[in-house]
Every structure is written in structure tokens, then in C-alpha cells.
Amino acid sequence: xxxxxxxxxxxxxxxxxxxxxxxxxxxxxxxxxxxxxxxxxxxxxxxxxxxxxxxxxxxxxxxxxxxxxxxxxxxxxxxxxxxxxxxxxxxxxxxxxxxxxxxxxxxxxxxxxxxxxxxxxxxxxxxxxxxxxxxxxxxxxxxxxxxxxxxxxxxxxxxxxxxxxxxxxxxxxxxxxxxxxxxxxxxxxxxxxxxxxxxxxxxxxxxxxxxxxxxxxxxxxxxxxxxxxxxxxxxxxxxxxxxxxxxxxxxxxxxxxxxxxxxxxxxxxxxxxxxxxxxxxxxxxxxxxxxxxxxxxxxxxxxxxxxxxxxxxxxxxxxxxxxxxxxxxxxxxxxxxxxxxxxxxxxx
Length: 348
Known about the structure:
transmembrane; mainly alpha; Rhopdopsin 7-helix transmembrane proteins; GPCR_Rhodpsn; 2% strand
């Protein structure tokens, strides 16, 4: 994002970014790979989650929500690829620009909030199994949580939905989409500060802290029992989620904050780095199916059946037996829900 010195002139540093074919080519290639992997992986995941995975536990509901946001990004990326290959020249009009930009950022922040929700569900099911014991109540809360996530994200991104995000650059004969934001997009510096605060702290940093806390507690709790395979999957899941936050989400959000402050107050820019980080943020949509594989036992089994793999290995069969014994132990201790199992634990 870059502020302008006038309605028709940009500084030389900004113009050089749009003249660089190397950066746009790298971004286009990454987007192409992400689009293919996204649509194939998440298309299969959505089919499995909707039609082959039962019952629809809270974790499965959150995974469906996450898959939907990923597929939305996969549909939007081809337009971004065309824009990059045409040399940052947008020719689909301001409304389409605003719509696709909001879709792009909605995927990022809904993914962050959904991963937080999944981590909270794991935490409640494993660390505090007596909380929210009724499956029906937990399902209702999961659906309400998904609707709340979308409402929160769209309310924060409202300025993008109501603003013309295109910008004409006569010097280069192009019209950019979202690459140059006008200062009058928001009425004051205070409004810009509130906008950035909500994007960085409410939609990224706070969920990141909650997710980290929940998975650390889950790993500690699982370390107390002897189910080695379950602990390994839990650790892999936690590492993968934190990796997505660290590699995909953190650089983009930190650079967005730094870049906007530099442009508003010091007339400096780190936009090239931000543009690349925005590109890498899309990689999260390719990693989410692996989160489902590690996070849902039923999803793993259905995927093995579809791919023609062995349903379970001998080692995993033994683990299934230990899981049953563990569930019987939970019943004896009075830690089970009314339907006779702990949902989040079984999902591992």
C-alpha cells in the first residue's frame, strides 16, 4: 500500500515497483502453484468433510468453514494472476477489485480465527473435558462462532468494501488494484490507526496468542498418558498450525503495520517485501488439508479409503485398542460426555 503525493504522480520508488517484471513474475508463479494445490486439495477435503465425515463435530464444522474460505481464495487467485501478468493493469472495474480484495483478506483472517476456534475446541475437549459436554450445545456454538468470525472480519474490512481501490497511473498507462491506497480511504489518521489496530491485534495477534496457549496446554495434557501415537499427532498438528501462523500470516501482518506507518509518517516504503509476504500468506490454503488429516481421525480414515491405502497399519491398530481402553478409563473417571466419548480427543 502506498500513499500518493498527488492524484496523478507517484514517487520513483513506487513506480519502480510496478515496472519490475521480476517481482510480478515470481508472484504469478507462486499464485499458479497455490491455485492448483488449493483447488485440488480443498475440493477433495470439502467433499470428504461434507459427505463422508460423520458425525459433524465442532471441529469438523470449523474445518468446513476453513475449507470454504480456502476455496474462495482459490477461485479469486486466477484474477490476481492475470493482473500480475498484465503488469499490474486492472481492467475489471472498481467493484470487482473491491470484491476480490475483500475475498483475499477474508480468507486470511477467517483462517486465523478458525484455527483459533479449532485450538479452543481441542483445549476444551482434552484439557477441560467437563466444559461444554453436550454435543448439541457445542455444535450450536461452533456454527454461531463461524458466523461471528465472518461478521467480525467483514466489519473490520468494511472500508475496503466501500472504497474504490483502483488507482490510475498515467505515467505507466496502467490502473492498479489495491496496490495504491488513497489516504482519504479513511477520514483521519485516527481512523487509520483504528483500522490497523483491528487488522493486526484483533484479527491476528490476539488469535495467535490464544492458539499458541491452547496447543501448548493440549500437548502437556496428552503427555500425561501413554498414548504415544496420539501425542505425536497432537505435536505435529500444533507445529503445523504454528508454522502456518509464523510463515504465512506473521510476516504479512507485521509488514503491513510497518509499511503503513512508514508511508503515513515518514514517506518511506517496504512495499516489495509486503507484496511478497502477501503472496506467501496464500500458501496457508495449501497446508490446511494437512491440518484436517492430523486433526480428524474420521477424515484420515475416509481419505485412506478414497486413495486406496491400507485403512490402518498394525501400529495404528494397536493404538486404536489403547484409545478404547483410554475412553473406558475416562468413563470410569466421570470425564465423558453424555454420548459416551470426548469429541475432541477422538478427533486426534
